[in-house]
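Lab channel / #folding
Pinned by the channel admin:
"Please post every new chain as: sequence first, then the structure tokens as a reply. Keep commentary short and put observations after the output so the thread stays searchable."

First post following the new format, from NK:
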Amino acid sequence: MIGVIGRGAIATALIPLLRADGHAVVSLVRNAPGPDQVSELPALLATQPALVVEAAGHDALAQIGTAVLCAGVPLIAAAGGALADDALHASLRQAAQDGGTRLHLPAGAVGGVDALAALPGAVTLRYTGTKPPRAWPNGTPEGTFFEGTARAAARRYPKNANVAATLALAGPGLDATHVTLRSDANAAGNTHAWEATGAGIALSMAVTSLPTEGNAATSALTVHALHRSVRNLTGEIAL
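Reply from TO:
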């Protein structure tokens, strides 16, 4: 049994992939639950899921994350940017220790996180996110509209800057990672580009992905990254 938190674009795309792999799936939704859905976390945990996938945003992770981890259930979180809140970060870490399990942060819409996390010593990291105007909050101007730290980006744009936070956590940290956010009417999709240096090694990566159906802010690759994380936790070989 796999638990999924949410009923939005990510969950809608992910659940058929999980079922195609042979998993039974139960979803936690707050209003008008239907078949294979529950409205409260205790009901989901009562199904004894092998793991839970959060696909509902920062608030959802803050509300259910510690309880899932304290119950000893591995948690895969799409909303890694929520860890920009130090208190939540600390409580999730403590809950994982208390429950004897782990919080997993998938790479999401970007690649190369494994190589970035492997860099030893002092690391410099710059990330640029470019999306069409419809992917940003209403009123966001075209061009570069944000320059700052990954922590500030994750807090100000919780639906758009989870990638920046994930990279920062794999690299030099939320306050040492420089983030640029851009709105471009000519963008072919959502582009995530980063470059890092450390220990005489230079890394760079750029990924452009069409958005998920029904959510212009989220890259389709995010769904497949979550799917990969589930496969790594449930399969015989993890890659």
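NK: The longest strand covers residues 190-198.
TO: also worth noting, The two ends are 22 Å apart (CA to CA).
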